[in-house]
Amino acid sequence: MTRTRLVATLILSISFADAGPIEPKPSGMITLPVRRVEKNQPIARQLRHRAVGVSTALAPNSAEVFPESAPCCVFAHYILTNFSDEGDNQYLTTVQIGTPPRNFSIILDSGSSFFWVESAEECNVNSGGCVGKQRNPTFLSGPQSSSFVNTLRPWNEEYGSGSASGDIVTDKVVLGGIHINNLSFGLAHEISAEFLEPTLANGLMGLAKAGSSNGVATAVQTLKESRLISATITSYRLPRSLDHINNGEVTFGGLDHNKFDNSTLVTLNATNDDLWFVPLGQVSVNGATVSVSGSRKALMDTGTTFLLVPSTDIDALHANIPGAKKTGSGSYTIPCSTNASVAFEFAGKSFAINPEDLTNSRATGDCRSRIAVGSQANQWTLGDTFLKSVYFSTNADDNTISLARPV
After folding, report:
1. Cα dist. 180→98, 141, 228, 326 in Å?
2. pTM higher than 0.85, yes or no?
3. Residue pLDDT, tens place only, 126-180
4. Can you give the residue range of the structural domain that contains 343?
5. Residues with catalytic annotation?
6. Tag placement on the chain: N or C end, fewer CB within 10 Å?
7. CA-CA distance, 6 to 90, in Å (whole number)?
8. Under DSSP, is residue 103 helix (H, G, I), strand (E, B) or coil?
9. CATH no. for residue 127?
10. In total, how many domains does the chain have?
11. Which of 189, 290, 265, 197 is nearest to 6 (CA)?
12. In a domain, 251, yes or no
């Protein structure tokens, strides 16, 4: 069943000046800074993962524009809606593809595994009309790249609400200044209307495990197989728009130990062959344990903006948040200035959400709670509402997830 939810996306912006080959660091890692940018673009409203959706639609936005000329080669887009509590909704990424290289804005997503970009040829939209060409002029095709090869092998990805399909191709890709020759990825000839919400993205790069990637190695796997990084690890330090500090980064190949409190680091075995699921321990609000139903598993997904919980648990969780009010649609509002501490236990250590992330607002009055109902029983999707409060790392070699408190 298709449900609506916000999509969060990370964007790496790599200038042509950075496009030459770069030797990997002695540590075997590639670390990219992330900065916050806000755009006057409506947010994407549809689920783009196999995960679950929130139960209420979100409104378009108006947003403050930050200068594109700000220093650093990798940035995050935060799109603010016309609600005061709707920041940190979108992170976009730019990689370079082809010969000569061209910039593509790509969703960087831990909740799926396949990498694809939109095609300049035979672009069809399931619900009619190739409006994507009007929205975004950056497409990939053979005539635009001398290193482009179409294998003519079909691929198809079905998301929670939406789909994309086309041919598997190979081409040169530059990621953080590192050249990947003959990377296999998807060229989308057909995309569903959900992907045509006005965004800055030209495609999607999945960073889950290879089991759900159409038989094609993920970009991070290819980096390791090419000995450009030492491990198939992706680590995230997500920035927070309210902080107005460009302190985010994405690291391929390891963990940046300068970004977290090493005494708080825990590593857990993932329980799914495809996506980043781990067992969820105790849930608490202000130190008091919340009684939740059934066994629980948590999906760590950078591509989900909200924290999504089973319908059987949403009331019990908000009942412990002072000032929480249920709306007619079944969602909740909570005081914008709440100081409630919502925490989750993993491997015996508790990780609390920054109270500001429960509303993403410093306004007065009531704001929409960024804890919402998901559509899967016993599954909690810990999106950016939670992940901004931790240092988050995935290891496809060991099938593990690491969490720590950021610094």
Report:
1. 11, 18, 9, 50
2. no
3. 544 344 444 445 678 778 899 999 999 999 988 766 788 999 999 999 887 888 9
4. 256-404
5. 109, 301
6. N
7. 8
8. strand
9. 2.40.70.10
10. 2
11. 197
12. no
